[in-house]
Design a protein that fits this description.
Chain lengths: ~260, ~450
């Protein structure tokens, strides 16, 4: 679905704003397609799905936004354009910060939060930040290697026969080709500079799901106490996966999301 | 005590991808979750039980990943598919009943009646037949060009062209395709480059690193490596931006507009990088049905586990055999791109530094009868119509594949009455050379 300059994948069904809506927000250097094995199921089981491409990513026109706050404000504008008043927000990595900040900016509109592969502060190592600025292809490979826990995914994503490690790499490379203006550095800088996470978390009253990968080397669960302690009612679910949870543990992510959205 | 490895070898800086041989053994395979079996089990089953009616619907509609029916996917085949994708640097593999089935699946996924292909004419005969005659019957036309003439490639492209096509090492003269140059032209014209990489395997050449977008193999050959299973593998590099090409040219509706045959799916929206592989499996395997048996997938997996080791030995033996043939008075000419007499010598040094494979031709002095005496005198080389076996193979085109072809027409195909095609195996090189020496002596009896 096209909303002005914004593309939203709707799960293979026409979007119906009268249904309960689930919004999916991807992470750095990614697009909507990382949610393939969650969005399609949810859209075919009674929910409206909006899996956005953030500005400058995938099919949404740029430039890329430089702060998490701006991304959250933009996201709320997308909900307005789609005619959505209330929604469950599910975000991965950088997208989890966008979801959190959107809940802070418009708490009455967010019925539940799913924070997947999250942490706060989301500090990016100086060496990785510099590599993203100076050598984006190398930064892509570093993040790709740190985001995956195996070279044998069963039954693989989005379907058997797909090699997850190379699919994730190609997607990040494609984002570079579409938006050559140091997209990865821009996204990482937004994560690195986001300073409102503690205040945002303290304001959250809606049901919240924390979904962590037991083998996540990018945002290990032990690094997220600031968030989990600030949202004590949040439910923590662990999946046998690395940082790329949606591909490495697609059913676990889907089942946890279903439990959240069906309850809310 | 000196360390076994120097510090440079033992300490890697930063994360790195597994090496070729590690991927050849492990990519796509983990101990079987049900039994712990370490080798990949053969899942010899046509179908897979659903957990519930909701699970069934979700699998059919690509809402969840999993297996439904072995024509479309099978756990043993999936290991092979993921492994070849890993080795090639691609995003997905599809196992097919044969190499020809892989070629057909690749082309039929993006081409239909009214489409056009541009192909190098340096092709395996079966591939030429499919393009020149069979696909033409279904409305897909092919223009054949001199693979070394980039202007000819360019001139042949039409508005309805869907792909450029070639072999990494072409038949019969081992023409080395200038992959970077042809790929650059393809991309300039918003077209994918599809390559048959059977003779090189990903060990000698990884075409995606040089600009190719789709690769297929007759896995029967070096990937299986033991002359046992027939199979093909099609690999999507995930490199070609089908949506951008569709936006610019209107081509590739197959991937970028709703497909009535699969719930109105727009494959390029489902997967940003692999819509080709999605449609090839969801349409082509489903409807054409040329799936690989899991038994064959197992045999090919066994072969791939030692691909690197075997290819090194294949190439080393080939170099020894060629060195012998070049010195033999009964041999007129040897065609191998590592020789400075080959037209692609310089290109081969750039693209194929590990070697130019183990299949080549040489011309024996004398007539067809001399050729027959040569073949009949061989005892280690097997006379048969295949390549890429662990055993050494030979075929004499003038008395087999081309036996009805008059001598003058043979010459037009680059073949003489004494042309021999060898596929050098893994035996001891000395035994191969002794075998060839005996046969060359027999061939020369009666030749003045």
């Amino acid at each position: 679905m096209i909303l002005g300059d914004t593309y939203c994948y709707t799960g293979g069904k026409a979007f119906d704003a009268s249904l309960p809506t689930v919004v999916f927000i991807h992470g750095a250097q990614n697009d909507h397609s990382v949610w393939a094995l969650q969005t399609r199921y949810i859209a075919h089981h009674g929910f409206g799905v909006l899996a956005v491409d953030l500005p400058g990513h995938g099919r949404s026109k740029g430039p890329a936004l430089t702060t998490v706050e701006a991304m959250a404000t933009w996201l709320l504008g997308v909900l307005d354009a789609a005619g959505v008043v209330h929604a469950v927000l599910a975000g991965h990595s950088m997208g989890s910060l966008v979801a959190l900040e959107a809940a802070y900016q418009a708490p009455a509109r967010v019925t539940a939060l799913a924070l997947i592969g999250t942490t706060y502060p989301m500090k990016v190592a100086d060496a990785l930040l510099a590599t993203a600025r100076d050598d984006e292809p190398r930064a892509i490979d570093m993040v790709n290697l740190w985001s995956h826990s195996t070279i044998a995914h069963k039954p693989s994503a989005p379907a058997p026969g797909f090699y997850v490690m190379n699919g994730a790499r190609r997607l990040m490379q494609r984002m570079s080709a579409i938006n050559p203006d140091q997209l990865f550095f821009t996204d990482f800088s937004a994560c690195n500079n986001y300073a409102n996470g503690a205040a945002a978390a303290a304001s959250v009253t809606c049901p919240t799901l924390f979904l962590f990968g037991t083998k996540d080397a990018m945002t290990p669960a032990r690094s997220t106490k600031t968030l989990t302690e600030a949202i004590p009612h949040g439910q923590v679910v662990m999946a046998d996966a690395g940082h790329d949870l949606m591909a490495e543990g697609p059913d676990a992510v889907l089942d946890a999301l279903l439990a959240l959205i069906k309850a809310n | 005590m000196r360390p076994i490895l120097s510090p440079d070898e033992s300490i890697m800086s930063g994360p790195s991808y597994p090496g070729f041989d590690t991927l050849a053994l492990h990519a796509g395979a983990a101990p079987d979750p049900a039994t712990g079996a370490r080798a990949t089990p053969v899942y010899f089953t046509s179908s897979f039980a659903f957990k519930s009616s909701d699970d069934a619907a979700a699998l059919f509609n690509m809402e969840r990943s999993g297996h439904v029916y072995s024509r479309i996917s099978n756990p043993t085949n999936a290991v092979l598919e993921e492994r070849i994708a890993a080795l090639e640097g691609g995003v997905a593999g599809i196992a097919t009943a044969s190499g020809m089935a892989a070629m057909h699946l690749g082309l039929a996924t993006i081409a239909g009646a009214g489409s056009h292909i541009v192909s190098s004419r340096a092709l395996y005969g079966g591939s030429h037949n499919l393009l020149a005659y069979t696909l033409k019957r279904f409305g897909i036309e092919t223009t054949f060009v001199d693979g070394r003439d980039i202007d000819a490639w360019r001139a042949a492209i039409r508005p309805n062209t869907k792909a450029l096509f070639g072999e990494t090492l072409g038949n019969p003269g081992l023409d080395v395709l200038d992959v970077p140059t042809v790929a650059a032209l393809a991309h300039e014209q918003q077209l994918p480059l599809m390559l048959d990489s059977t003779f090189t395997t990903p060990y000698l050449l990884r075409p995606f690193e040089h600009g190719a977008d789709l690769v297929f193999h007759s896995a029967t050959k070096f990937l299986c490596g033991h002359g046992t299973a027939i199979g093909g593998l099609l690999v999507d590099g995930g490199t070609f931006d089908w949506q951008a090409a569709h936006d610019a040219t209107g081509r590739f509706d197959e991937l970028c507009t709703p497909y009535d045959g699969f719930h109105g799916m727009v494959f390029a929206e489902e997967s940003t990088v692999a819509p080709f592989a999605l449609r090839a499996r969801r349409e082509g395997l489903r409807d054409f049905g040329a799936a690989m048996s899991p038994h064959n997938a197992f045999a090919i997996l066994q072969g791939i586990e030692t691909l690197g080791l075997r290819m090194d030995r294949h190439v080393a033996n080939t170099r020894r055999v060629i060195d012998f043939l070049l010195r033999h008075p009964a041999v007129d000419a040897v065609a191998y791109p590592e020789l400075d007499t080959h037209p692609d010598y310089a290109l081969a040094k750039t693209l194929l530094p590990k070697g130019c494979g183990a299949v080549f031709t040489f011309n024996l002095k004398g007539d067809r009868a001399a050729g027959r005496r040569f073949v009949d005198a061989l005892s280690v080389f097997s006379h048969l119509a295949n390549v890429g076996d662990a055993r050494s193979l030979v075929i004499h085109p003038a008395s087999t594949t081309h036996f009805r072809v008059p001598t003058k027409q043979l010459a037009a195909s680059g073949i003489t009455e004494g042309t021999m095609r060898l596929s050098v195996g893994l035996e001891d090189a000395g035994d191969l050379i002794d075998d060839l020496a005996r046969a060359l002596k027999a061939a020369m009896k009666g030749v003045s």
